[in-house]
């Protein structure tokens, strides 16, 4: 008997327990971070004061700081982080390549360019910006799929074409931002890296809505997506329609990433990092989507807190995640095998 | 690739020289402001009595800068493609220009360094370190330096470097505006007194790069064969790389990181002249100068009365070419 248990590595013995533990731990971490960002800033408040301010108890001193400044920031960080993590991992699983994340292949860049164009040139705001960003994201996804559709779309070709398209879109974004007279340049720089500065609860509403709709769509598609990882033929044999699944996943993932980008700017590398980190924490593939979403929220909220209070200067969250994400990308490149590696 | 006949080669030189002359002519006469011919002449002769003539007089150093930087980037791209045997190599894509920019920005922000000469040294140091770093990352691990790995290493490095540049610049409102517009890549603010110190650097880079044609030709046959032909591959590569780095650093210090010139130009030159680097290198220099000059002219025309920075134009023109190269080349690792 003891031989048997030696032959089975511990982590694989009861994957469901480990999975639930990891997911619970991640949820607790995110909740703890939110509590931390609500109570601590330049100075720290007692938990009781925070609670009083949130419930709107009359005469609470901290009411403005907590509910007008810190709460919108935390909420926007949470929903945007969840969206980036979920959208990113959906792409990575669908294309079976950790490098095929929306911020590398140009989906984030297209949403960012469209959002900047809509805000600065067309002078629209709110829902319309999100809608324009999603339409642009879907258009660019279609363009990249079409351009790389030779000998399979999942390979290096798709990533390289995405990088080329990103460069083009980024040049549009820089142009619009440089031309815009009303925009403070420092503010533009902040937006370009992704920032939660000046967050308002109204900004979080479209992101939360997208999270419900597209996140739900992904949750319903998760099983088919799982089958797709085994290859199109196997998926077909399991009764999964490969093209239909890909269409739904693309729609959902682009929707998530584009709407979050329209609200916060392209926060560097959150979509790219969340999936691989979650995959290393979780045994097997189940729960990967939820895990990646939680990791995304953790990265955004923690990155924002570090950038605001733990560094000598106040920096937007995108600078922090960019500085963390780039070394990880370099590590993946060094480790990558010839097909780019799987998640 | 077509085999180049001898008359064909001279035709290539003649066409590109003609294009360069045309570019210079356009760059001096076309701009956000329409200037009549007599005022163009007056401006060229240094008589700046009318506004039109003054505008033309400003275009002279600007044109010189575009030609210098464009030639440097085109040649550097050709050398990099030769050294790494990678059709996607470009100082912008590989992050080398971004590295040069980071050093210049740090110099401005932290050490109060000013003066064109110092920027040049900083730019060259930054370009050199980044080039070594990106190449090491791209070449480590399975499969060696494939185009995909090198490009990704360059992209990752660019993102990290950009994050760092923003981290340096954001707390400093006094320099944010100038750094931001410099970082997009522009030749608009050119003056002869900042341009002249760069000329010796450009010449050194040019000579080192042009001298490496033999080594690059040998490398194209494969490393073993090159060694067998009696080429000192390691030394030759080092010299060629040093030349390319000096060129990139100089160009970036002068007008900010400009991408895609070094990618597009060598490919076009190979279409004209075949694969011989003795031809490709000088042709790339000419064509790079023309491309940057024409991009600058285009940037002045399309957004009248405003101007588009030349880095935006080259990215917009060059990125489709990059995609086309990815689609059409049969590359290692693709």
Defining traits:
heterodimer; A: 343 residues; mainly alpha; ABC transporter involved in vitamin B12 uptake, BtuC; 15 helices; 75% helix; 0% strand; globular; disordered C terminus; B: 334 residues; cell membrane (chain A); membrane (chain A); transmembrane (chain A); transmembrane transporter activity (chain A); ABC_BtuC-like (chain A)
Quaternary: heterodimer
Succession of helices and strands of chain A: HHHHHHHHHHHHHHH
Q: Per CATH, which architecture of chain B?
A: Orthogonal Bundle
Number of helices of chain A: 15
Globally, the shape of chain A reads globular
Show unreliable segments of chain A: 1-11, 337-343
**Major sheet summary line of chain B:** none
* Percent helix of chain B: over 70%
Helical residue percent band of chain A: over 70%
Classify the fold: give the CATH topology of chain B. Answer: ABC transporter involved in vitamin B12 uptake, BtuC
Number of helices of chain B: 15
Average residue pLDDT of chain A = 80
Contiguous runs where pLDDT drops below 50 for at least 5 residues of chain B = none
Largest protein interface, residues of each chain: A-B, 53 and 53 residues
Class of chain B, according to the CATH hierarchy? Mainly Alpha
Number of strands of chain B: 0
Number of strands of chain A: 0
Task: Summarize the structure in words.
The complex is a heterodimer of chains A (343) and B (334). Helix content of chain A is 75%, strand content 0%. Chain A has helices spanning 2-7, 10-13, 15-39, 47-54, 63-94, 107-121, 127-148, 156-179, 185-193, 201-228, 232-237, 242-264, 270-281, 288-310, 317-335. Chain B has a single domain (6-328), classed as ABC transporter involved in vitamin B12 uptake, BtuC (Orthogonal Bundle), CATH 1.10.3470.10. The radius of gyration of chain B is 20 Å and the shape is globular. The model of chain B has no long low-confidence stretch (mean pLDDT 80). At the A-B interface, helix 8, helix 9 and helix 15 of A face helix 6, helix 7 and helix 15 of B. Chain B: Its main location: membrane. Chain B: This is Iron complex transport system permease protein. Chain B: It is a multi-pass membrane protein. Chain B: The chain crosses the membrane at residues 41-58, 65-83, 89-111, 118-138, 150-170, 198-220, 240-265, 277-298, 310-326.
């Amino acid at each position: 008997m003891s031989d048997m248990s030696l032959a089975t590595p511990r982590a694989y013995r009861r994957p469901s327990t480990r999975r639930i533990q990891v997911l619970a731990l991640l949820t607790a971490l995110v909740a703890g971070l939110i509590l931390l960002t609500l109570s601590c800033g330049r100075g720290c408040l007692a938990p009781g004061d925070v609670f009083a301010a949130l419930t709107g108890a009359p005469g609470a001193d901290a009411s403005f700081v907590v509910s007008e400044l810190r709460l919108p920031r935390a909420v926007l960080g949470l929903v945007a982080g969840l969206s980036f993590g979920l959208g990113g991992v959906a792409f990575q699983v669908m294309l079976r390549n950790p490098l095929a994340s929306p911020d590398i292949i140009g989906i984030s860049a297209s949403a960012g360019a469209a959002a900047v164009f809509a805000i600065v040139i067309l002078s629209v705001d709110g829902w319309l910006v999100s809608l324009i960003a999603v339409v642009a994201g879907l258009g660019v996804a279609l363009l990249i799929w079409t351009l790389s559709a030779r000998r399979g779309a999942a390979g290096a070709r798709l990533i390289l074409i995405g990088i080329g398209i990103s460069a083009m879109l980024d040049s549009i974004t820089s142009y619009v931002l440089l031309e815009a007279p009303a925009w403070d340049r420092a503010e533009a720089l902040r937006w370009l890296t992704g920032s939660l500065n000046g967050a308002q609860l109204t900004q979080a509403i479209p992101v939360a809505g997208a999270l419900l709709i597209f996140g739900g769509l992904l949750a319903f598609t998760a099983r088919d997506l799982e089958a797709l990882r085994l290859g199109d033929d196997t998926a077909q044999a399991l009764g999964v329609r490969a093209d239909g699944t890909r269409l739904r996943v693309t729609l959902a993932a682009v929707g998530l990433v584009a709407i979050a980008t329209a609200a916060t700017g392209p926060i560097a590398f959150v979509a790219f990092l969340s999936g691989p980190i979650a995959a290393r924490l979780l045994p097997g593939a189940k729960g990967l989507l939820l895990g990646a979403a939680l990791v995304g929220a953790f990265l955004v909220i923690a990155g924002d807190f570090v950038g605001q209070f733990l560094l000598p200067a106040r920096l937007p969250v995108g600078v922090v995640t960019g500085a963390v994400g780039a070394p990880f990308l370099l590590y993946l490149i060094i480790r990558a095998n010839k097909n780019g590696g799987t998640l | 690739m077509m085999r180049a006949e001898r008359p064909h080669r001279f035709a290539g030189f003649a066409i590109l020289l003609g294009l360069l002359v045309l570019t210079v002519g356009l760059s001096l006469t076309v701009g956000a402001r329409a200037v009549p011919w007599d005022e163009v002449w007056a401006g060229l002769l240094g008589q700046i009595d009318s506004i039109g003539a003054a505008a033309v007089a400003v275009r002279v150093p600007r044109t010189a800068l575009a030609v210098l930087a464009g030639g440097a980037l085109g040649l550097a791209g050709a050398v990099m493609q030769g050294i790494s045997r990678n059709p996607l190599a470009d100082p912008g894509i590989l992050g080398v220009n971004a590295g040069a920019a980071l050093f210049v920005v740090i110099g401005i922000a932290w050490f109060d360094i000013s003066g064109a000469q110092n920027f040049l040294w900083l730019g060259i140091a930054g370009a050199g370190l980044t080039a070594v770093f990106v190449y090491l990352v791209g070449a480590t691990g399975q499969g060696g330096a494939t185009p995909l790995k090198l490009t990704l290493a360059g992209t990752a490095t660019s993102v990290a470097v950009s994050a760092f540049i923003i981290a340096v610049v954001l707390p400093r409102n006094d320099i944010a505006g100038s750094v931001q517009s410099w970082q997009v890549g522009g030749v608009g603010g050119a003056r002869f007194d900042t341009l002249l110190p760069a000329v010796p650097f450009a010449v050194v880079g040019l000579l080192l790069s042009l001298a490496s044609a033999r080594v690059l030709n040998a490398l194209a046959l494969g490393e073993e064969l090159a060694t067998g032909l009696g080429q000192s591959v390691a030394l030759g590569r080092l010299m060629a790389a040093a030349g390319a780095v000096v060129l990139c650093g100089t160009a970036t210090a002068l007008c900010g990181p400009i991408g895609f010139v070094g990618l597009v130009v060598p490919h076009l030159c190979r279409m004209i002249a075949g694969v011989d680097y003795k031809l490709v290198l000088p042709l790339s220099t000419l064509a790079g100068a023309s491309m940057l000059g024409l991009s600058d002219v285009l940037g002045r025309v399309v957004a009248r009365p405003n101007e588009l920075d030349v880095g935006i134009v080259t990215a917009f023109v060059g990125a489709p070419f990059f995609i086309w190269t990815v689609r059409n080349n049969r590359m290692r690792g693709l």
